[in-house]
TrEMBL record:
Hydrolase found in the keyword field: yes
Catalytic activity: an epoxide + H2O = an ethanediol; (24S)-24,25-epoxycucurbitadienol + H2O = (24R)-24,25-dihydroxycucurbitadienol
Pathway in which the depicted protein is active: Secondary metabolite biosynthesis; terpenoid biosynthesis
Family under the similarity heading: Belongs to the AB hydrolase superfamily. Epoxide hydrolase family.
Protein keywords: Hydrolase
Function, in words: Epoxide hydrolase involved in the biosynthesis of cucurbitacin and mogroside tetracyclic triterpene natural products (e.g. siamenoside I and mogrosides IV, V and VI). Cucurbitacins have cytotoxic properties and exhibit deterrent taste as a defense barrier against herbivores. Mogrosides are nonsugar highly oxygenated compounds used as high-intensity zero-calorie sweeteners; they also possess pharmacological properties such as regulating immunity, lowering blood sugar and lipid levels, protecting the liver, and acting as antioxidants and antitumor agents.
Organism this protein belongs to: Hordeum vulgare subsp. vulgare (Domesticated barley)
Family annotation (Gene3D superfamilies): alpha/beta hydrolase
Record domain AB hydrolase-1: where: 45-324
E.C. designation(s): 3.3.2.10
Protein name per its UniProtKB record: soluble epoxide hydrolase
């Protein structure tokens, strides 16, 4: 078993609030991973995988909700984020690496099988995890990013490379396209701009408008009131982390999209064979990708994920749905995983 160094506590002490967060650093898959945990260590485990540009902290509401119901909640900072190590090599951020991190983390914590909950890049990693190692997953609740075989996996004679697909669909100013060239994204996402960037990205809810242009053009959002679901303390937490680490590790996930697409070719015709619930806000940019609503609602997702049990579209919700609609999403997760 990999070594684990406790920074917070072990099992919750008698009388301790189950929702209290414990922090530790775990050595897994060759890197040091910061992990936040809550709930009894004897409880059934839920692994939370965050997205861009986020941290374990994005799951704070769901962790409290599920810990209070007896679940062991495990939320790492993914590689390159927060307190987790950030390898310098861009090629160290493939889906193989990050799925490897997740499996090694479970091994380090002596957890054989988990419920998995993902959002944004965490959802992509969760889809890959369920393809590569379904034996480690009891059930999946994914949010925001649907399973998109043509984007994630090189499949079929007419396959189009992931970055070519986004360039053709949305043009070179689209954020995924802008992120490909080293140095360009780092200038836009400088650590000194972390507070402004996090305020703007979270407040904009990563809309289609926001995704199509640089995020440092307009500072007026700083003066505007934060949405009701977001506090200054929340911004402080995110900003402090990215001021320290920068955004390069996070951006490197995008720089491996083409590499992931090629590496996943052995799973070109594979299905996601774990019980699944998918949740998306109708204001999320991912819900407005070309053809995605037909794919979701006319059987495409069900064909790729045959054990899809529920598809939930939340009216009026944006991209950061687990924070924006915290209680609703927490209820959806609990209602689903409690059946198993």
């Amino acid at each position: 078993m990999a070594a684990a160094e406790a920074q917070g506590g072990g099992a919750a002490a008698a009388g301790e609030e189950e929702g209290a967060i414990r922090h530790r650093t775990v050595t897994a898959n060759g890197i040091a991973m910061h992990v936040a945990e809550s709930g009894p260590e004897s409880g059934r485990a839920v692994l939370f995988l965050h997205g861009f540009p986020e941290l374990w902290y994005s799951w704070r509401h769901q962790m409290a909700h599920l810990a209070a119901r007896g679940y062991r909640c495990v939320a790492p900072d993914l590689r390159g984020y927060g307190g987790t190590e950030a390898p310098a090599d861009v090629a160290s951020y493939t889906a193989f690496h990050v799925v490897g991190d997740a499996v090694a983390l479970l091994d380090a914590l002596a957890i054989h099988k988990v419920f998995v909950v993902g959002h944004d890049w965490g959802a992509i990693i969760a889809w890959y995890l369920c393809l590569f190692r379904p034996d480690r997953v009891t059930a999946l609740v994914n949010t925001s990013v649907a399973f998109m075989r043509h984007v994630f996996i090189r499949a079929g004679a007419g396959a189009v490379k992931t970055t070519d697909y986004f360039n053709q669909a949305y043009g070179p100013t689209y954020y995924i396209c802008r992120f490909q060239e080293p140095g360009v994204a780092e200038k836009e996402f400088a650590p000194a701009h972390a507070r402004h960037l996090m305020t703007r990205i979270l407040s904009d809810r990563f809309s289609e408008r926001a995704a199509g242009k640089e995020t440092t053009e307009d500072a007026t959002v700083e003066a505007a009131a934060l949405p009701a679901w977001l506090t200054e303390a929340d911004i402080d937490y995110f900003a402090a982390a990215f001021e320290k680490t920068g955004f390069t590790g996070a951006i490197n996930y995008y720089r491996n999209m083409d590499r992931n697409w090629e590496l996943a070719a052995p799973w070109a015709d594979a299905k996601v064979t774990v019980p699944t619930k998918f949740i998306v806000g109708d204001g999320d940019l991912t819900y407005h990708y070309a053809g995605i609503q037909d794919y979701l609602h006319k059987g495409g997702l069900k064909a790729d994920v045959p054990l899809l049990e529920e598809l939930v579209v939340v009216p009026g919700a944006g991209h950061f749905i687990q924070q924006e609609r915290a209680q609703e999403v927490s209820n959806h997760i609990y209602d689903f995983i409690s059946k198993f």
